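Backbone shapes recur. Consider a single case.
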Amino acid sequence: MLEMVIHEKACRGCKLCLDVCPTDCFSFSDETQKAVVTALGNCIACLSCDYICPSGAITHTNHHEVKNFYRNIHFSQRMEKFL
């Protein structure tokens, strides 16, 4: 099962993860001034939040990685007759 952790000491409270998440997995805690995961079940593991976080405070584990076949030139050359 997918796990996502926001490391509280590393989080700067910039809210970039809230802005980039397409499924609204995060909310902002006014108490701690940090982002918190509130709807993990909505996460589609796009990892946008992980990539955009300037402090690297967000980590994902147990997610399925999909190969970016469209970035593989050899694969694209073999498939161009079908595209």
User: Anything to note?
Assistant: The CA atoms of residues 16 and 53 lie 7 Å apart. The mean pLDDT is 87. The longest helix spans residues 73-79.
